[in-house]
Specification:
Radius of gyration: 18 Å
Strand content: 25-35%
Structural class: alpha+beta
Order of helices and strands: HHEEEEHHEEEEH
Largest sheet: 4 strands, antiparallel
Distance between the termini: 22 Å
Shape: globular
Strand order of the largest sheet: 1-2-3-4
Number of helices: 5
Number of strands: 8
Length: 172
């Protein structure tokens, strides 16, 4: 029975890996189809679909959140200027963006910068919640970034670790 379960787990990991690779390939095609300053909101929606969330900007622009969690390792923020044209396309799960997440930052601001996390784990006994995002540390190391929030919804601490799911896939 144990061998059957292990085979099932290996099949599930293989399916997840296939999905991640498929998403990465599709995103590359989608990104190449868009051009900053030229592509319209309709072009962005045609390439990426409906955004998970739309963030209003002070200048009248809007930023569309396209999340690839939990299977993927990227989250995209695509800004549509007041003129209806795409002004920026950013993959936001980067070490530089993680470094900007500081103690005291509100959960909404973290979500605004990084997109929806792959996992939201509450620890009721100690009044903390941990959000995790999968990402790739350059050049190609699967990692997980975590932000721990206190009962007030503000960052207490952050950190990164090797992605345990990728370690399990490699047999580590």
């Amino acid at each position: 029975m144990k061998a059957v379960w292990r085979g099932g787990a290996q099949a599930a990991h293989a399916a997840l890996l296939a999905l991640v690779l498929w998403l990465a390939g599709c995103d590359g095609d989608r990104i190449r189809a868009l051009e900053e300053g030229v592509s319209t909101e309709a072009d962005v929606r045609r390439a990426f679909g409906e955004p998970e969330r739309i963030w209003p900007e002070a200048d009248g622009a809007r930023t569309f959140e396209y999340n690839r969690q939990p299977a993927g390792q990227r989250n995209y923020m695509i800004t549509i200027g007041p003129d209806g044209r795409m002004s920026a396309l950013r993959q936001v799960l980067t070490p530089a963006n993680f470094a900007a997440i500081q103690p005291g930052m509100a959960a909404d601001e973290v979500r605004r910068r990084l997109g929806r996390p792959m996992k939201d784990t509450p620890f009721a006994r100690i009044g903390e919640t941990v959000w995790d995002w999968r990402y790739l540390e350059p050049p190609n190391t699967p990692m997980v970034f975590s932000a721990t929030f206190g009962p007030d919804g503000r960052v207490l601490r952050t950190g990164s670790t090797l992605d345990p799911q990728s370690e399990a896939q490699r047999g580590g």
